[in-house]
Request: fold
Amino acid sequence: MCRLIAVSNRALCAGDFEERIKKITQLGADVILREKDLSESEYERLLKQVYCPHIIAHSFFGAAKNAGCKRIQLPMGILRDTKSLAHEFEVGVSVHSPDEARQAQEMGAAWVIAGHVFETDCKKGLAGRGLDFIENVRHSVTIPVFAIGGITPQNAKSVIASGADGVCVMSSAMTCSNIEEFIGGFFG
Reply:
């Protein structure tokens, strides 16, 4: 079985954003509430509106603390600058190399999100790092590794076979017309 994390993006969302987030979590996936365009106070309001145990905050650790959110996804730079966050939250870190993954683990990360694996519209023009990249990240850490970038229900099994503990999706989770069928494709 594949562990799935959807990464939110209101700008891409088909239909009601809060309903989509609720449905994704009800179907067993976690959601990183990313929403980088919001101020921290706007982000906190949204986080409080959609919060459930399947929600992972992103970057705004003050908002996460105020909302009672226990998990947060951070860029490597924020964890480097604020190492104490790994004592306050269960922290995930975005990484782009096996060395960054090792560093994240040493700083207390509970998981890493490694990418981008395949070519994706989110990183237009940049070639994916490939399945060998995931295998190398997996061998560099003992914490869970999630792969991101161009992941689909069709290629997720090859990503898991390369050593990932789970996968992350953004655009397709926000735009698909049948969320039940889409999420089910990862768990089937």
Observations:
- The longest helix spans residues 40-50.
- Residues 118 and 128 are 4 Å apart (CA to CA).
